[in-house]
Amino acid sequence: MSLLSVQNLKVVRVNRSVVDSVSFDLASGEILGLIGPNGAGKTSLLRALIGAIPAEGQIALSAKPLETFSVRERAAQISYLQQGQQCHWAINVANLVGLGRLPRRSPFQAAGAADYQAIEATLADLQLTDFAERSIQTLSGGEKARAFLARALVSEPTLLLADEPVAALDPGQQLLVMQQMRRRADAGLAVIIVLHDLSLAAQFCDRLLLIHQGRARLCGEPRQVLKSQEIEEAYDVAFSLGEIAGALNVQAQPR
Amino acid sequence: MSQGLLFSLLTLILLATSLLSLLLGPSSLTLSQVLAGLLGTGSQVEQLIMHELRLPRTALAILIGGGLGLCGAALQGFLRNPLAEPAIFGISGAAALGAVLAFYTGLSGLFLIALPLSGLAGAGLAAGGLLLLAGRQASTLGLVLSGVAVSALAGALMSLALNLMPSPFAVYEIVFWMLGSLADRSTEHLWLAGPFILFGALLLFLLKTTLDALSLGEDTAQSLGMPLARSRLLLIAGTASIVGAATAVAGAIGFVGLVVPHLLRPLVGHLPSRLLPASALGGAILLTWADLVTRIVPPSMDLKLGVVTALVGTPFFLRLVLQLRREPA
Known about the structure:
The complex is a heterodimer of chains A (255) and B (329).
Chain A: E1 4-13, E2 16-26, E3 31-35, H1 42-49, E4 56-61, E5 64-65, H2 71-77, E6 78-81, H3 93-98, H4 113-125, H5 141-153, E7 159-163, H6 171-186, E8 190-194, H7 198-204, E9 207-212, E10 215-220, H8 222-226, H9 229-235, E11 238-244, E12 247-253
Parallel strand pairs in A: 3-8, 3-9, 6-7, 7-8
Antiparallel strand pairs in A: 1-2, 1-4, 4-5, 9-10, 11-12
Helix pairs in contact in A: 4-5
Chain B: H1 3-23, H2 31-39, H3 44-79, H4 91-105, H5 114-133, H6 140-164, H7 168-178, H8 187-205, H9 208-214, H10 218-223, H11 228-250, H12 256-264, H13 272-296, H14 305-326
Helix pairs in contact in B: 1-3, 1-13, 2-3, 3-8, 3-11, 3-12, 3-13, 4-5, 4-6, 4-11, 5-6, 5-11, 8-11, 9-13, 12-13, 12-14, 13-14
């Protein structure tokens, strides 16, 4: 049974639909790669799922309509890692990750033992234990990305929405973050991830959903989507697919 | 520094400062006379000095300073802008305008609290205007711009009132009033401003979790389940309540709300929620000290409170700027 079901999702911004009749399903343990050119509506789709912008259509989580969830319950189930995430104040990594626990307790309750355990375990998981007391501003790009991912994972969500979490990371750090997502997915987490690196998408995603001009053009196995006519139309480039040691390699050429 | 230590230290300093504020004044009373006056066992003069002069003045300094410090911390946290300060929404400008109109119409001479009441009315109107302009849907930028608009309008109307003022003495009086002072404030002033400031403080403390979540941006705060639209209303109402009451009673007192959060932020690990109580304590300490300075200088100089807070605050601020230059963020 699917964890998330989206039917006819539509987002209208200033009289223009940026997301138009998008439908898809997502099962627990699955990583869905959201691909498509800049401005296709990928971020709007994710923001609609967390309720940051109004949307029409039916969204169900664990077969329950999303609007029947309380705000806090919904926040605890769905984690959102926004594009280009930043922290405005120089708070330390442990406190930063701790922010992810906010939906797991009532507004004026202080952090308890369960919170501290979750923070500690998530820090250890992402090899951040040594950074716990360091200010987030003093971390490198890769360390920051891991800290923000830890913040999103610490609430033990059932669904993670990650908007370009590996943009601007070096290949090693990209791999670290993606492997972590894969591990979490293998343990039952459902992930929707926006990626522009199509080789990385082919390597780690179970399915790809191609969005173009607000509409879902194609959804399926990475190989099938990447070889399609639709993807070349969407990006307006020609793709040549190679295979290096069993992994798909995607290269763009002018059409 | 551990948080427990920091808060006990701030509380201790505030207690010592308040005691000093109760002890110092034009008529020199000994500690035992002060205590006797406070407890109502001293002579009538001692009781009068303590109950009608020093106690309301000290309490007002603590409430107004604390309120402004808290306001600054909440605004900086909510707007994620280290330059935000309590005057940003134009509430203090509107409160000052209300007071100026009371001078202009001669209302201020009719009864003791006519002036602050008129200031409060101005603040209330401005808050209403701000809510209309920046209603529920407004973005943070929309909110700040609406504040700028309210502020500009209040400033323009105030200049107009000064321009048309019939007597130069009235202008002189207004200019001095606007520099801020706690001299000769009575218990009536305390009862007028106190409830507004405490109510505003309560509203702002309700924001503490939202402020922490907002350090990750509005979308992430929303995804963490924070009620952003309601928080915006709480912020406007709380700020209006505190700044309106403070300005109406004590005139324009700048710098406390801007500087105090900056000074204390590193000591609370930069967490916006912890900065709220710390800034309230710090603001109360700073303003009580500034008020003490205005009392220590010879009365002939008649140094105003707003001048002292700016003079005391600027060196701290400069130190901070120099520190930032040495170790870029």
